[in-house]
Fold each of these.
Amino acid sequence: MFDTMTMTKIIGGFCGALLVFMLGGWAGELLYTSGGGHGDDHAQAYVIDTGVEEDAGAEEETVDFAEVLASADVDKGARVFSKCKACHKLDGTDATGPHLDGVVGRAVAAVDGFGYSGALAANFDTWTPENLSAFLEDPRGTASGTKMTFSGLRKVEDRANLIAYLDSLGG
């Protein structure tokens, strides 16, 4: 039953299957790769700014918020507000979130007719610049259970500029 010819055919079949498998892998790699040659000195084609810095593990030096707020730029704050205008308005009407004109110094959850989550009032009484900064840095971490889905503003300068801009609008 197993003579030399049969064993040769079996071994040849396995070698042929291995060859077809290896050639298929080579052809697939040739078709679906963009080529090599990147080496260690390649550059990233584009960067998507997510608002999170790569050195998040690095220890930040403590900055006095009052000093940063005193030197805040209202025009830069207007640009930072572009991140907020998808959900908030400044004309006294509510959108997904409550209107923000006159928010600095206003009592928390004080906009009539807006359905707040209740998480804010449990953490803050009044929207002082310090309370706004803490909330804007990490909304869900500061007021667990808030409906606000924004991930926050990590840079203290951005928060100070935004608060100065909102304060300049009055109420």
Amino acid sequence: MTQATGTRIVLGQNNYGKSDVRLVKVNRDNERHEMSEVRVDVALSGDFDAAHVEGNNTDLLSTDTMRNTVYALSKDRFKGEIEEFGLALIDHFLEAGPKVTGVRIDFTEHLWERIKVDGREHDHSFVRAAGVRTATVEGDESGARRVKAGIDDVVVLKTTQSGWEGYLHEQFTTLPETDDRILSTVVTAEWEYNTTSASFGDTWSGVKEQILSTFTDHYSPSMQGTLYLMGKAVLERFPEIQRIHFSFPNRHHLLYNLERFGIENDKEVFHADAEPYGLIEGWVERES
């Protein structure tokens, strides 16, 4: 294929960075240790045309330097909240990189809970908890900062108080209506803050608590209806959150046919289905 006459080829949007930096931080200030385990991804944007077009790496931070920076700054700047650590990393990379004009830091924090022995929490022994905490912090040379946080991989299920009725029936519809089904999904949520000075840890714990509480407190005519109620409850409780996004894969649990064996199945035995699943996604946000 020949190049069209007069066509000019230019470099488009680009960024580079270091991914999958695995950091474990232990606070040993007293006998009761605190610990955090996070995956950190660093992405820098800026004036990198010369590196791409001319092979000129002058004034570029190496990705190895980015990795080292995460570990080095964590010593004094990572005090427990990943969002605050992200803001510190942004300030550092904007100052350290002569050609850097924007920074994005993504976090995935694996959660640990204290092991209980005879009903008491152990000072320095932990067990991995369900789900992960996520955050994305972005900033640029103008001073703008944006903070997002989230929850992922939290599996929830309720055995009743859910149905699926009144939907469109057409020539290819085979699914029967029901007003009593198992409802199960994997909670993935991400919310945007309207401030960079929130109590990020307390808010994250509160949002998770509110999502789980709302899942339990109503009859769900659909996952869509539950999505909206969850988002509404979060925004009403936390004014520092501007909007929240949910992604809910439907984990189907199908009543297994035991009648062919002469056995009654009164909503007791189910097949956890791995076939194609429904995916419900959406934002709930404050009206501008």
Amino acid sequence: MTAPDSMSPPPLARPGLDRAAGERLAPGLVDALKADAATRVLVIAGDSAPLAAPDSLLWRAPADVPAGAEWAFLGRHDDGGALLAAVFPSSDDELFSAPAGWAGLRSAGAALSAVDAGAFVAALSLGRWLLDARFCPACGTLTILGDSGWSRRCPHCGRQHFPRTDPAVIVAITSAQDPDLLLLGSNALWGADRFSCFAGFVEAGESLEAAVRREVTEESGVTVGVVSYRGSQAWPYPRSLMVGFLATALDDAAAEADGDEIAAVRWFTRDEIGRALAGRGEVTLPGPASIAHRLIADWHAEQA
């Protein structure tokens, strides 16, 4: 699928990071790069990374990384330099001080350069797997890392395992009658003033388009007609690939929250969305690092 020209790339999906996947097979690559002082390392602790400034990551030399990390090869910077990830579990104490502190991907991702954002989302996605999937799911044996941190092999049963990605759809719904209306929902776990697009995981044997129609109907009561692909980006909470769509309701009056996962649904005018995007509205919209924010903002810009 190709996103329409009017859709700007989601903040965590911008091209920039060269993953240099062909290099991963080189034996001893990570150890060799750790011994090279020119290598840059992104340290991840839980879901946070150190910042050199509000809009840039703090990269460290391998020798400056604390002991005990899980390591992986991220790829190459646009200047050709090697990039590694050093991953640690979450901790109440910072591993080291950073000029602009430590921040999570949700809060910092949208402000970063394409290379930094790509490295952050890759390191966080891969890092969760490195920490949480040490044992073979088939036989329980401790696995051996391979492919420079991108695979695991079980020494007992011989199975090879790779990082898992779970596809999920996320949908902004436009009105059947009024092009200046957008339907959003408020999750039961959020505050009553927070609204976003409708989202859910793709089920086994289900297409993306079928998942869109099912999730929208389940959560909002709305049946949709035209479904248009808008873009995608990784979202490592814990391991999702969010695939964004814009869909048109067939009957606006059918909108009704399911009362379980979704506590409320509401049609918003273009002006209301504009005020909320500017931080002046009565509701809170998703943060700028999310694809939900991009779907809403692009819809608003196209209607303006």
